[in-house]
Write the structure tokens for this entry.
Amino acid sequence: MVRATLGELAVQFGCTLRGSPDVIVTHVATLESADSSALSFLANPKYKAHLASTRVAAVVLDSASADECPVAALIAKQPYVTYARIAAVLHPPPLPAAGIHTSAVVSPSAVIDNTADIGAGVIIGEQVHIAENVVIGPGCVIGDHVTIGRDTRVLPNVTMLSGTVIGTRCLINSGAVLGSEGFGFAPSAEGWVKVPQTGRVIVGDDVEIGANTTIDRGAIGDTVIGNDVKLDNQIQIAHNVHIGDHTAIAACTGISGSTTIGKHCMIAGQVGIAGHLSICDNVVVTGKTMVSTSIRKPGIYSGSLHAEEARAFRRNAARFAQLDELAKLVKRTGKKTGDTTEES
Amino acid sequence: MVRATLGELAVQFGCTLRGSPDVIVTHVATLESADSSALSFLANPKYKAHLASTRVAAVVLDSASADECPVAALIAKQPYVTYARIAAVLHPPPLPAAGIHTSAVVSPSAVIDNTADIGAGVIIGEQVHIAENVVIGPGCVIGDHVTIGRDTRVLPNVTMLSGTVIGTRCLINSGAVLGSEGFGFAPSAEGWVKVPQTGRVIVGDDVEIGANTTIDRGAIGDTVIGNDVKLDNQIQIAHNVHIGDHTAIAACTGISGSTTIGKHCMIAGQVGIAGHLSICDNVVVTGKTMVSTSIRKPGIYSGSLHAEEARAFRRNAARFAQLDELAKLVKRTGKKTGDTTEES
Amino acid sequence: MVRATLGELAVQFGCTLRGSPDVIVTHVATLESADSSALSFLANPKYKAHLASTRVAAVVLDSASADECPVAALIAKQPYVTYARIAAVLHPPPLPAAGIHTSAVVSPSAVIDNTADIGAGVIIGEQVHIAENVVIGPGCVIGDHVTIGRDTRVLPNVTMLSGTVIGTRCLINSGAVLGSEGFGFAPSAEGWVKVPQTGRVIVGDDVEIGANTTIDRGAIGDTVIGNDVKLDNQIQIAHNVHIGDHTAIAACTGISGSTTIGKHCMIAGQVGIAGHLSICDNVVVTGKTMVSTSIRKPGIYSGSLHAEEARAFRRNAARFAQLDELAKLVKRTGKKTGDTTEES
């Protein structure tokens, strides 16, 4: 267990401390907690109501909220970032035990740094390179010619197919598949003809890949995930997609083949992006939106209706099916009364 | 193979039997089957047309349909429930072979009941507790400090990360990942700062979790799945979600972080539920709906348009993009002619 | 490395060669490549702009584009099919090493052809039949009574539950789960009653199944995937679905229980198809569409709105929620001015 005083944390993370520097915190908890050795934070105004009654040891928050804090306060300009950094100190990832588990099956041609931790039942193919401090969790299959950069953690039961390249400090969650066959078939009179998928998956540094996310290898050339890209669970990334640095994508989103996504984009959950598109930098796409054309201008894009009471929704949806006809009627009538839309 | 007479089944399950009590059934089949030792059922009126021509040994159905049944009838008030219970007698799950397969890798500190069945290639971490009659299928990885209650079956290649708690009589399908890292990052000038995910996944009793479904551990505090919750395949449940007892969720649905779903809800497939929401008890959400605000009233909620012939749909969708303008025109014209909506 | 001359390829694949028959190609590359031993292709007019500047050895294209090709041209009627076939010659799948890895756990009752390649850590149950030249990648779990036809390749970490039948020349990608429990529960006063799932998964010949795709076993009777069906990643196929020959389905699509899909259909990504429906042959469904009724007529079907700039979309979506009321107003006004839709 890590122990830190508020004084130490204030100095290390540049916070203003309101309260005793000698108070010790050992872990994080929510504002609702009554745990007097816990640190909490307030970043989302939605949870401000919990501040007045909190009984944790200290709260990371901004100066605007500090007066309402009934316990010690670590005042930061960006409370969520500061909280994240302190929490990482209090909750370090488990220390890897360097070495190769006796049940792992490692090709003799694989080069594995002796600080790396290869878990039970791991299978490592030919010509694999695994760098310093890499952790490969139990049950992972690492195909031939895979390269994994230092300090990357691969959780249990991940599959990396041949040729995959992973940068440094990445985290790959369980069930993720990197380098699966892209979906490429040419129609012919005799049925589908498979188009060989000859490329690889290339992942940058500081990338996080969620549980059961799939990233196909390129058909020709590679599928490329930039630096500091964050991919949530159950995302599907097709062959030859390129994702720019610092872009974050939420769960269950699917990106079709050969689409390029810019830097610093934020794509919400269950979004679908068609193939062969180009999305520029700094684009935000809201949940469940279907993107079917390229986006050339930074901004926020939406395309999904929201839940209504079912009977009302159904009535409106029935009218949607008459919408073209209704619009024509509106315009005819409008002409008679002298009312027009700008375009009619 | 199990053999049961209709007489025995009628007594055990409280059905009225129309037909010979000595007829033997050994398995279930559809109404279309001609198998004279099979039991079938009629619950969905859509399939009533098949009743007249069925040649199975007997059919479980309600009294209203009994007269049209050409073979023996087991008449029940709730034919689907009764069928389910009889089918469970005829098709018991395979008997586990108690013991730990020699190829499994089990931490010495794990406590495994000697009636449990630990399959080939299973990897079990430190301080794991596995109770009576639990079956862990081949290839599963069970992380440190996991607890699994009695009679729970875990199918092959499931991953449970550290700290996961599973109740009794659960069924976890292959490829499911429990306890993956939640998706939490604080934006900073230097890029994304990871927010440590310090909580666990807590699953109640009688829960079924589908293939390749992912449930993230809590960020602070736990992600909680109540008793008798049924989760289909490829569902994504983010950190700190709470799901109430008896709620059932169909495939491919995604639930964002910190959302609470009540009891006895039914969420259809491909639904998306945004984060930090509260859904009350007894809510039904229809397929592919996007829920973006809390739901405080029991009822049925919808939000998805349905397939139309593409050309018609495209014309209407083009009008949708003019809808605000059209509405303004309608209201202007309406005012001139003395027609108004309630709100205009 | 495979080496082929353009002359050999032109003869073998029936192309007209414009250029020297002695030029050697060894691999494929994009038109943007400057690799003088690479073969490329032009099939999508979107990429025609790259043709003029290409520096590859030769391009497969149709006669209409041949004049603009600055390098050798292999002229074909269907350039994409011809390219696919040539690429398969240049990039053959890795040769399997026949035999059973010493770390595999194989039931004594399994019958495995001695040309098959069973990878490290594979677990094979009772009464399994594996035919000639089958490759089972590392970490796969093959349940009892599974049958796999000749020349089928199963990539690492696939799970096939008991009774699954796979045809010849299939490719199953990593993380796929075949034969998981269908989602069947009867509601009762005491909670959900599980309906035993007694059927199997039956897969035809020449089928490709994507990474992390899940196919449930039938509840009664089987779930059936026809010949030459192509399933992309993260598709969910529920119990008792039948998919007709030559149908292709893109990623993240979900098909609910007991639905039948015809032959030669093309279903795009993130489509949802409700249960107990029938979709006829030659149906195309565009991305993210919700299909909630049977489709009896070949054609293209759509149901998804597309991304707009968020503010505009939100305004229109707000009007959608008033649509029924607006439509009534339009029709009232229209009557006064003598304007009507066909149906009003």
Q: What stands out?
A: The domain at 99-301 of chain C is CATH 2.160.10.10 (UDP N-Acetylglucosamine Acyltransferase; domain 1).
